[in-house]
Task: structure prediction
Amino acid sequence: MPDQPTAPTAWPQVPRWLTLSQSLKKARDPVGNLNKVLAAYGDTVNLYLGGVKPSVVTRDPALMQHILQKNHRRYHKSDLTHGLLRYLGKGLLTNEGADWLRQRRLIQPGFHRQKLTGLTRLMRAAADEWVAELAAQNAGQNGSVELDAHAAMTRVAFRIVAQSVFGDALSDAELTQLSDWLTAIQWFYVTTIRQPYLRPLHWLRGSYGQHDALARQLRELVRQGIARHRAAAAALPPGAAPPDDLLQMLLDARYEDTGEPMAEDQLVDELNILLVAGHETSANALTWAFYLLARHPEVQEKLVAEVERELPGGQPPEFPDLPRVPYALHVVQEAMRLYPPAWIIDRVATEDDEFQGQFIAKGSVFSLYVYGLHHHAGLWPDAEVFRPERFAVEAQPPLPTYGYLPFGGGPRLCVGSHFALTELQLVLIQTLRRYRVLPTAATPPGLNPLITLRPNGELRLRFERRA
Ligand code: HEM
Result:
């Protein structure tokens, strides 16, 4: 049957039968699938995601800039992001419009440089804890241990974000519980998106109700964390400095217009979102960075040499030290180019719009294909090569405009981008100065692009103690 001209925009239409047949055949490789389609039809196409959902998929930097920055007022997140509201509530990531802006203004100062200086110590402690775990695991094993780097980095990243948020208001067991509930909710949510045809089955089995119940338990635990934090701050002796964590900042913050603090329900929503947004993304970035370093020992040694030169004798890095070891940053940046944790960004047009003479109807759904943008051969010389040096300040050619968007762009740029870059560098530095990372027979892994770009299954790497 000929395809109906259903596209609300004039970009090429990929026939529905093609995406449907490809999605059935290649459901395991959506990234490889999208790359092939874009190579055949152009940088921006209309297609049916998974053969079902009409969407404009683009890797055109100018169109991404149009949507995220220049004309951002005409675009909101799509149902993909808003679906999280049910479980996590209305925090920065899921909120829109004037309400979002008010919250963003209140929260953003918590991520300024000065705040990060305090949080750096906490991040470094979490990194050191992971290195100590490595040492404990490889005792008696010739100084070398093989493990699933993704599972390990998920624990490290969660510890960093949860402790940065709550300080020590929640115990280790409670943090693990929080992480388990969040993981269960995210997995379930992703399944309902990835396999929409299973929704009736989930409904019949009561899975929606079960995950609603988990979300309620999650909120209850977050509330307990807030209550304990408040009580601990109230019990401080006069003149003692309050804790330096993100929750304290949110408790102290006041809206510009009313001078009021954030309502408790809103605070719970924001904390839920910070935990989710700041956890899996960082874990994936770290995992892929270690994977690339394992395959590029020369990059690893260059990084360690720079660290030893600038921070001799194992000197612990503080926030102001990081600019002296720029190569660690470039490694992180290049890892996120090749493996962007937020591999796709969703938007929907809230009114009619136009881009370079193309009409865009209200309701058009966009998938900004960040993975495709970062691998675009027309934007990146040797696009598939891991070369951190391309991020050096003096590098030629300069980075392509709107060609690198690991943290998104425009007003909704990731609020935790500096937080994330700091933690990623610290974990790499603290690990690599004590351990060499090596590939194993089990690597390389495939890609598992869910909400974030994860490895498909375990990503096993070997960590070998340096002399
Ligand atoms: C490598 C790590 C990270 C990556 C790759 C990443 C990526 C992103 C991206 C692409 C967006 C924009 C989404 C969109 O426009 O639809 C975003 C938003 C956001 N991120 Fe991150 N993120 C990371 C770490 C963090 C951390 C550590 C936190 C908090 C502690 C965080 C909190 C948020 C929040 C709250 C938003 C929503 C901001 C808003 O809409 O105002 N992220 N992130």
